[in-house]
Please model this.
Amino acid sequence: MPSGTSKITRRSFLAGTTLSVGSLATLSACASPHLAGTSPNEKEVPAEERKCINICNGACCNCPLEGTVRDGKLVSVSPIPQPRENTGAIKGCIKGQTNPMRLYAENRGLYPMIQRGERGSDNWERISWDEAIALVAEKFQAATNEYGPSSVAFWLGGGNLNGVINGNGAYDVNTPRNSYMGIGCERFLSQTGYTIFSFDWDLPLVYLGGEMMNHPYFWLQDLVNSKLIILWGINPAGSGGHFVPWYVKAKENGAKIISVDPQYNSSGMLIDQWVPIRPGTDSALMLAMANYIIDNDLVDQDYLANHSIAPFLLKEDGYYLKLSDLGKKLDIDEEGNEVDSPVVWDEKANDFISCLESTAGAVHGTHEANGVNMRTVFDAVYDNIKQFTVEYAAEECDIDATIIEELAREYATSGASCIQPGLGCGRYYNSSSLFYNLPLLAALTGNSSKPGAGYFGYGQALVSPFTGVVSQNLDSLYVEEPNFGRCISGQLIRDIAETGKYGNEDFPLRCVYVMTTNPVSTYAGPKEIESALNKIDFVVTADPIMTDTAKISDLYLPICMPWENPDDHNGTFMLQKAVEPAGECKSDFEVLNLIAEKMGFSDLYPKNDQEYLREVLDTPENIEAGAAYDDFKKQGIIPVETYEVAELTAVELNYGGRTRFYMEEDCRRDDYGQVTTFTDHSPFYFHANEAYPTNPKREKYPFFGFSFHDTYDQSSIYAHNPMLDEFREGPFVRMNTKAAAERGIQEDDVVRIYNDHGTCTIKVKLTEGIRPDCIQIPHGFARNEYIDGYPQDLSTIAINPVVPESAVHDWICNVEKVEEGDQ
Amino acid sequence: MTRYGMAIDTTRCFGCNSCSMRCKVEHNLPVNVMYSRAQTFDGDLYGRPTGTYPHVSVSFYTHSCQHCDNPACLEVCPTGATQKRDDGIVLVDNSLCIGCDSCIAACPYDGVRTHLGEPKYHLDYALGAADTPEHLAETVEKCTFCAERIDQGLNPACVEICRVGARIFGDLDDPDSDLSRILEERSYEQLKADEGTRPNVFLLK
Model:
């Protein structure tokens, strides 16, 4: 039970940098106030203006933004201005500036509504909050009474991640979780013991790489020290604009920048070389590079032996040989505690010694001690990866062997190479391997723990021009005697709804409360998710907009957007109320208060939101630092006294400061009895679910399909946004010019993309900046913004046994021109 | 004298259009009116690369009124609505504009002006700065270099928001201005330099 004051965790910080989810659809019943068409030129007496700080909540970077309020209306939202010399300190993009539009967009829900007749029939009736809350309480209570608390699940997403009061995004599935959501959610769920469906996004990177492997975070300001930067499946110019200044600076400092990506995008202005890789095969390329480095004497032997886990000794059970196995004296850590360190065979000492003492670890070899057989981690790993040669990758990834060799050589010899992995390669069934393969490359070449070198990160600058809290008081986060329910990956609803079981256990799921997530639009396999939800007795969606998921729910509850209710973003800045909520919208905290009261938990929330905020923020440390409740309440966001970009080197965080490319502990996110093997925990390449070149279905479906979040697109929270539409002109598919010509397809033609899972009819934009065997679709528009069908319908649920990322890029398809009369 | 101009650093601009949206909000621009827009040198708005797969490249600049020293729009304006201030900023006084579009026809820089029909808005209240001038039907509008901000000693809105410092605004007659200094140090090109308009927007290479 976390209690007392606790520091901001690395996890909660990371979680604040991530995500994907959200969404839309229109409904006449939710037509918003302030939608125009008229010409509001009226500029009478200039009214008084005030500034306020709030958040974009665009399900991506969670940028703090500054709003201007005049006459009680939000007239402008923009990044917080910075002096010109504060390179890289401006957060917020073109999308964030459309926040006033978002508040009053046509898909904004304004009233509680109940769906009469079948779900999805669009037969909505406005009801009062009293009626809506009574219905929720009645359904939850009935399910709980008959089937127990696990029969009610809260599906939590990325639309509102880090609000101390209203936050509702759950990444990790531990009980209790390492990270936490807002007080509203946590108190409710720890009281009721209801199930949590956590969201399934960015998991290879954030969950496996960050949480489980504890890879060192490469900070953007270290890019200026890099000689070679490999953007691997990431498009900073399109989806992380505030990263760009750091890349520009690195480039101006002479760094070479290479992009490994099936598509060439606006980040092209940064890069020197494009390596157009076949989708889903990234791990094969990484291992080919590793093999080339090993075979061509490019290994940094000292780093591999003494700064990585390569010489650790694996017992037959997959665990490291440790001091206690040999009856040796344990190490003592800085705090005086005994530690059972892994042991290596040290070639100088000619003995098994603690990895903390060794300076000449043997990378190769088999050993036997006290009747236990073991071999080095490196040897065990190498046995599995040696098959993925340059020739293999040339075929699999469709890249010339000479390019792979040159890439490997440059990476190994530049002096300071940095790989920036993105989510483009991270959303396949096989993406888990990336975060074993990347540290293996770093371990082989010493590209870690030195200036400009790194292999892990999420595009974040450590130095902020703003100050955050020192600590948070989380005494009230949970109820006194918490009853934690199970927390599992959302996609598993497919099997739970079908079988009524989770593994071998009965799991009678009856009610689902969807909060600020939109799985029917944004997850892989939306049709399968819809079908699962349709098997559930009662589905409620609580969201600021009438999402596609809301449309197939029984009940819709309208929730406040940012700018409409106060909160605090995880101790980094205050969300100041700018305007009154649209229609009858309420905050999640208010809604959960009402449900709790109706269910008889009348003392669940003894404080109001402001009292809780004060409790969390008013620690003695924060008060002393001038970063407590009153400080944030007044300023919203607190500038640091001096903004200095210190040189920062990411240092390995794991035991002994060694680069780790193997996971000895079982790190599966969910445990439903699935079987995993050594290669689920170590460097390897296995095929994606559908996106692999030898998939026999490619005869029928020759194109690899994947989606993008780009300059104008993010999760479904930015659908139905006419201000952005002026720039982006609605959804379109990107297709290679030559591949299109071969099919008689021209610019702006309408095509149908299809496979066994689904179909979508959509306009085409041609480009030379994509592989001829690929098409790229947007991710985030609502269903009714397409001519027909929906692009995500072409994807399917494919659950990796360790890291169950929603595999939204992992599909293949065919493309055909739709003749005019057929549209 | 003061003579305002702007440089666009094409090695830094990544076509994010944050500046264009900032401009749109700041001036409460009606639907489908933009004073500025990022594009590639091929004029493509989606950032498509040039070249042939896989040998491609892309770079961006922002396109808007060039506030020329010798503006083609000035003399053709029949009502005197188009004016050039002493500091070089070219403005359209919409109270005098009759929407004849002579300026649009004369200007060699396509797409920098919009003939407003009946202005329409996404929201029923005005966005942006309180002192933003009204938009009048059947008039022509274009970038003002944020004259109202300049007069308050501020930078144009697009300059302030650019996170990579790709827009440099300043006084060309002041040799110590950031703009003059960067034009001294860097090579640049001007759009349609052979048209005799003497544009004051410089694309740094």
In short: The longest helix of chain A spans residues 129-147.
